[in-house]
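Person: At home tonight, work slowly through the protein below, taking as long as you need, and write a paragraph about the fold.
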Amino acid sequence: MKIHKEGYRMIPLVLVIVLAFNALVYLTGVKLLFLAVAIPSVALMVVAVRFFRDPGTVKSALPGEVLSSADGKVVVIEPTFEGEYFKDERIQVSVFMSVFNVHINHVPIDGEVVWYKYHPGKFLMAHLPKSSEENERTTIVIRTASGQEILIRQIAGLLARRIACYKGVGDKVSVQEQLGFIRFGSRVDIFFPKGTEIPVKINDIVKGGVTVLGRLEG
């Protein structure tokens, strides 16, 4: 199993903490207590390693197709006013990532990054509607060769404490590339132009870089 670069520091850190804690418990001499701690510690390490896995997703899209940026469950599909960049009504599709999902974020469509902004904020549960405006987040806008624009918003969740975005304004991007990474429970919103065909529905399980979330007009 390939480990994502975001795990290179975190996995050894978790391992050191787990080993140190288990060593302290072992020194108490209480064998039952040690076993009670050791077993969940192994489970924690397995979860940590799986969290930072990189499945090496094979990605491709037809012209006009917008792929999901994240693995997870579709929790929002609705028209909404996007007030940060577009300042008009868009179609919002949100994907919630649980701690068990791959947390790599993928570039959803080929184009150029024309807007990027980081917002410090709260760490509300990521599935709550107000997390889109109040939580720590980044906003990225990609403009396609035809001039259409897609806004992607990475949103931190209750447990998330770091959002990584690998792209910046002026970067040419492709669906073959990774957009970023969010540690632990979190969510990604994508804002589409009105008239976009949305082939997914609420509670659908989607795969980042594979599932088509929208088909742009024209």
User: Anything to note?
Assistant: The two ends are 40 Å apart (CA to CA). The CA atoms of residues 14 and 45 lie 7 Å apart. The longest strand covers residues 72-82. Residues 7-51 form one domain.
